[in-house]
Amino acid sequence: MPYGFKKKHHMAPYMNVELVDKYRDQLKGLSIGKSCIRFKNLESLPLHVIRSILEESK
What we know:
Elements (H helix, E strand, L loop, with lengths): L16 H6 L8 E2 L4 E2 L8 H10 L2
């Protein structure tokens, strides 16, 4: 299992808490925890938002 992911019928990358909060409005429709973004398939994931979060977390 890759670090940062849990699998139980969904995928959930864990990200910076402040950045998840910053982009929470753009992630509507997904199950969002304090620092994780849960999704069932890549088609439901807004990749441009995930890219922004990852770029800002450098």
